[in-house]
Structure formats: C-alpha cells, structure tokens
Amino acid sequence: VGHAVLAINGTEVNGRFTADGKDVLEFLGNPANYPVSIRFGRHRLSSNEKLMLASMFHSLFAIGSQLSPEVGSSGIEMLETDTFKLHCFQTLTGIKFMVLADPRQAGIDSLLRKIYEIYSDFALKNPFYSLEMPIRCELFDQNLKLALEVAEKAGPFGPGS
C-alpha cells in the first residue's frame, strides 16, 4: 500500500513492463500509440482496508463532535495535512461521504454533494441495493467516475475555491 503506481493509458506499469506484458519503452517509441495518458497514483485499497479506515474515521468523527466547543457540532468536516485534505459530508440521515484530495484542489464541497446526488439516484433508487452494503451498480460507477473526472479537470484553485 505504501508506494506509488504508474499507469500508461490506464494500464498499470511494473518496472519496464505493463500489467499486460508490453514493454513500456517500445510502447512509448511507437508514434501510433500517441497521445499517451500517464498517471501517477497509489495502489487501490482493498475493501477491508477501506472499511478499516472508514471505521477509524467514524470514531474520530464521533469524538470530534463530542469534544467540539461549538454547541451542536456536526463533527469533522475536513482534516488537513501538508500532502492531502480529507473532506467529509454527513447527510441528514447520517451517511458520510469522504473525499481524499490534493490540498490545493478546489470545489470538493460541490463534488461531495454531487456524489450524494449520484448515490441517491443510482443506489437508493435501485431495488437490488441493500443499505450499508457495497454498491454494485454500473450506472452508479459510471456517473461517479464522470463526476470525479469533472472535478479533476477543474484542478487546483478551480471554481468553488
């Protein structure tokens, strides 16, 4: 979980080869492969790791709302570090949506509300979805991916900062 991941055109790179066995240098040397999309990121967390982190944050959220000097505090809305910001939006029904973003990324509040809208439209209205279970819905995934792409294109210091 600790090291960075390089992906070329959506395929993870491990050393000199892609996950599907292609040589990266040969791929980059072929003009027919351009334009090339290169992304750096982290390994995806497993479902268990996500649940563990969400559980830890929920505990911090509850403690924060109880210790807050502000009467009626709703809990932690943002944790900020030098390298990331964790934003949290809690709905009136208590569901929490979290986004981990670059500290310079703008428009996260509107992104969180858009994610809630997507959840309401494609998970809650799905008769096969059970509350508190992983969401397995292609339309949800597609719309969430689109919302994240729009937010990423807005970039640091974009609209809503």
UniProtKB/TrEMBL annotation:
Stored InterPro entries: Longin-like_dom_sf (IPR011012), TRAPPC (IPR007233)
- Location(s), subcellular: Endoplasmic reticulum; Golgi apparatus, cis-Golgi network; Golgi apparatus membrane; Postsynaptic cell membrane
Coiled coil (residue ranges): none
Q: Which domain of life is it from?
A: Eukaryota
- GO annotations of cellular component type: endoplasmic reticulum; Golgi membrane; postsynaptic membrane; TRAPP complex; vesicle
Q: What is this protein called?
A: Trafficking protein particle complex subunit
UniProtKB keywords: Cell membrane, Endoplasmic reticulum, ER-Golgi transport, Golgi apparatus, Membrane, Postsynaptic cell membrane, Synapse, Transport
Membership in a protein family: Belongs to the TRAPP small subunits family. TRAPPC4 subfamily.
Species whose genome carries this gene: Aegotheles bennettii
Subunit info here reads: Component of the multisubunit TRAPP (transport protein particle) complex, which includes at least TRAPPC2, TRAPPC2L, TRAPPC3, TRAPPC3L, TRAPPC4, TRAPPC5, TRAPPC8, TRAPPC9, TRAPPC10, TRAPPC11 and TRAPPC12. Interacts with SDC2.
Keyword Endoplasmic reticulum tagged: yes
Give the GO biological process terms: endoplasmic reticulum to Golgi vesicle-mediated transport
Q: Which CDD domains match?
A: TRAPPC4_synbindin (cd14856)
